[in-house]
Specification:
flavoprotein; BaiN-like; 2 domains; 19 strands; 376 residues; FAD/NAD(P)-binding domain; seven-stranded antiparallel sheet; alpha+beta; FAD; oxidoreductase; Aminoacetone oxidase family FAD-binding enzyme
C-alpha cells in the first residue's frame, strides 16, 4: 500500500508530490499520469514562456521561493507577470521532473485511472492494475486543454466520492458573436471592451482586441469570457440574449462626436470623417451602420455594439470555471470535509483567475498546501 497517491502529474500534482516528500521523506508517493509525460500542459503555458505567477498574487513569494529551490530564476514584466528568466516553459517542467526523480518519487505515466472507491483506504482502479493508498490527491485538472489530458476525469472522481461539482464551463477564451465580422477578421485594435448584462456593466478592461470571422479575441476578451455565463434556468440557445458587448475605440476621450464635428467644420469630407481615426475596415463598418449620421458615428466609436452568442469551446479555452465546491475542502490543507484523507489541488477546484499568471499561481499554491497537508 502506498502512503500518498496523486492522480495527475501536472502543475499542482508535481508540486504537491515534491512538497510532501520534502515535508516527510519517509512517506511513499506515487504519481499517476494519464499522458506519456509529466507536465505536458506546463510546456504550453504563456505561449511557451510559462507565466508562472503575478506580483499581484497574495502568496507569490512562496512560489518564487519554491522555484528558486528548483534552480529557476525569474523575471517580472511591466504588467506584473512573472516568467522564468529563460522564458522557457519546458525548463520549468524539466526542473519539476528532475526534482521528483531526485526525491525518489514513483511515477507511472500512460496510466489512466478508471475508478476510485473509498474503503479502509482508497482503491484506485487502472486498466490492468489496482492500487491502494492511505491518502489520495485528485489533481488531474479541469476540462480545458484536452490534448494535455484534462478531460474532466477529476470531476467524475470527486462526484463519485460524494462531492458537489459546480458546473464546468470554458473560460479565458475567445467570444463568438451574432454579427458578421468577416470583413474585420485579422484586424487588431487597442480599445476597451465592456460586457453588459441587462444593460448593467459587469466587466470592463482595456487591451488589444483581435477581430475574427466569428467574434473577438485578445487578453481583455479572454478575461471578459469569465463573466459571460448562462443564467440559471436559461438554455444555451437563449442564455446570452441579455448580454451585450461594447467596444470603445477611444477610452481616453469622453466624447468623439465633438471630434467628428470639428473635423467636419475644418472641411473634411463626410466620407473621410473616420479616416486615420480607426483602421479602414472598422471605419467602413461604422459608416455603414451610421448611414452618414455624424452623431451616430461618434457614438459607435465609443460604444461599438456586439451581441455575444457564446464562447469558444474546450479545445480553445485556457482554464475551466467550476469544479469541486471550495466550501467542501479545507482552505489550509485542501483536505475534503466529506472524505477523510482525500485532497484536491489545482484546476479541479472551483477557482478561475484572469490571464497573467493567476491560474498557475493557484495550481502551485494549492499543490504546496495539499502536499504539506498530506505529509503530516
Amino acid at each position: 500500500m502506498i502512503d500518498i497517491c496523486i492522480i495527475g502529474g501536472g502543475a499542482a500534482g508535481m508540486t504537491a508530490a515534491i512538497c510532501a516528500k520534502e515535508e516527510n521523506p519517509a512517506c511513499g508517493i506515487l504519481i499517476l499520469e494519464k499522458k506519456n509525460q509529466l507536465g505536458r500542459k506546463i510546456s504550453a503555458t504563456g505561449n511557451g514562456k510559462c507565466n508562472l505567477s503575478n506580483i499581484a498574487c497574495p502568496n507569490v513569494e512562496q512560489t518564487l521561493t519554491f522555484f528558486e529551490g528548483l534552480g529557476i530564476l525569474t523575471r517580472t514584466d511591466s504588467a506584473g507577470r512573472i516568467y522564468p528568466y529563460t522564458e522557457d516553459a519546458a525548463a520549468v517542467r524539466e526542473a519539476l521532473e528532475q526534482k521528483i526523480q531526485e526525491l525518489g518519487i514513483e511515477v507511472m505515466t500512460s496510466s489512466e485511472v478508471q475508478s476510485i472507491e473509498k474503503q479502509d483506504c482508497f482503491v484506485i482502479e487502472l486498466k490492468n492494475k489496482t492500487i491502494q493508498a492511505r491518502k489520495l490527491l485528485i489533481a488531474c485538472g479541469g476540462k480545458a486543454g484536452a490534448a494535455f489530458g484534462s478531460t474532466g476525469d477529476g470531476f467524475r472522481f470527486a462526484k463519485s466520492l460524494g462531492h458537489q461539482i459546480q458546473k464546468p464551463v470554458p473560460v479565458l477564451t475567445a467570444v463568438e458573436v451574432k454579427e458578421d465580422l468577416e470583413k474585420l477578421a485579422g484586424i487588431r485594435a487597442k480599445a476597451q471592451v465592456k460586457l453588459l448584462y441587462q444593460d448593467e456593466p459587469v466587466f470592463t478592461e482595456s487591451g488589444e482586441i483581435q477581430f475574427t470571422k466569428t467574434g473577438i479575441s485578445g487578453i481583455c476578451v479572454f478575461n471578459l469570457s469569465r463573466f459571460l455565463l448562462i443564467p440559471p434556468g436559461a438554455s444555451f440557445a437563449d442564455g446570452f440574449d441579455d448580454y451585450k458587448i461594447e467596444i470603445d475605440f477611444f477610452p481616453d476621450r469622453e466624447d468623439m462626436v465633438s471630434v467628428l464635428e470639428l473635423r467636419k467644420a475644418q472641411g473634411v469630407a463626410a466620407q473621410r470623417l473616420l479616416q486615420f481615426l480607426v483602421k479602414r475596415p472598422i471605419a467602413e463598418m461604422i459608416e455603414r451602420l451610421a448611414k452618414g449620421d455624424t452623431v451616430e458615428s461618434g457614438r459607435l466609436l465609443k460604444a461599438f455594439p456586439l451581441s455575444p452568442k457564446g464562447v469558444k469551446g474546450w479545445d480553445f479555452a485556457q482554464v475551466t470555471k467550476g469544479g469541486v465546491a471550495l466550501g467542501e475542502v479545507s482552505a489550509a490543507t485542501l483536505e475534503s470535509h466529506l472524505v477523510e484523507n482525500l485532497y484536491f489541488a489545482g484546476e479541479v477546484l472551483d477557482y478561475d483567475g484572469p490571464c497573467g499568471g493567476f491560474n498557475l499561481q493557484y495550481a502551485w499554491e494549492t499543490g504546496m498546501l495539499a502536499g504539506k497537508g498530506m505529509a503530516k
